[in-house]
Amino acid sequence: MPAEAQRAVETIGGADLVVGIPSFNNGRTIGRVATAVSAGLAKYFPQLRAVVVNSDGGSGDGTQQAVMQAHHEDASLLLLETPLSATHLLSFPYHGVPGKGSAFRMIFEMAHRLGAKACAVVDSDLRSITPEWIDLLIRPIVVGGYDFVAPSYQRHKYDGTITNSIVYPMTRMLYGHRVRQPIGGEFGISGRLVERYLRHTEWETDIARFGIDIWLTTVALAEGYRVCQSYLGAKLHDAKDPASDLSSMLEQVVGSVFTLMRDYEDRWQAIEGSRPIETFGFRFDVGLDPVPVNVARMIGVFERGFRDLEEIWKLVLRQETYAGIRTLAESASSGGVFHLPDDLWVRTVFDFACAFQQPPVARGVLLRSLTPLYIARVASFVVETEYMVADEVEQRIELLCRAFERNKPLLAAQWRGEPVKEVAHA
Question: Is the pTM of this model over 0.70?
């Protein structure tokens, strides 16, 4: 922790709750986020001592100043109780390797040193955050005894495709719990789980730099902590072009999933099926930002990928999987209906996961070569769900998750280097 953060801990002495807001050049949105956090603490936890910590990556746009100028009085709250004490609002630059992980580490260190019962983190670019989010992220911990609260959102059917296509089905299959948004960005964490995170040694690794969200979720699931989720409504935040740096994002997130598979292989191989987890909050329908898609362009990316990466795919994919991908490429070139079956996609992800452990090419090259295949899966999903409403789309994602779970014995055998016996398709 920076010296000024250590001095703040000594001055404050202790706190019941700590809410962290990691940031980098979010001056336009972070003031509203800090106001909502402060308002939520005053409204829902008036008798608890609270600290809001902005852990900043060296912003040059006034981010830290916007935090310090935030006041929950601006929210016109109807407070049933007078807060025991004013919420401390702090902002410090974090030290260590650049990335969200270092920002989280400072927040957790402050929560630990202040003796907090619960810690929550929220993104700094949120446009849909309300004071109720703070209640939903913290109350299951301080009242219900949970250790980890994941967010649950309502999202457009073409938003969060990495989560829907890979991260949610894989995390659910591996660790046996249906955490719908394992890389959501907002979390509630108990004091004892904060201490466990700080004892881990991954803080100087790429997982902490690029895969901190999935790491937090995986540690909680794999190590047996009590996990739940809270429905927060829509997550609206600063728009990002999903195609701008897709390979990099896929490499970071999926690489972290595969790395954690190695770390926890003894645990996930012993788990069969999955079960729902407790969900808090009142589910309601909300308006969502549209997500434009261009299926023809996505299919074109896959076709170019097949031409350029065929030799790598032959090294990574098992013979049966490669034959299925080749058939898909031939169908695309002939103008047929573009459809990548669930079981073929599952086997593709499994082949990459196993190849990642002893890669035939550099891991970065390996993961980037997955991008055209992932885009093919998204294109197939868009074609299939074009006229489906939200509930129907969720049922379609459920079928994909079941395909991952049904094929898990194949993954376990392949991971151990045993002969692979194909699982009958549903």
Answer: yes
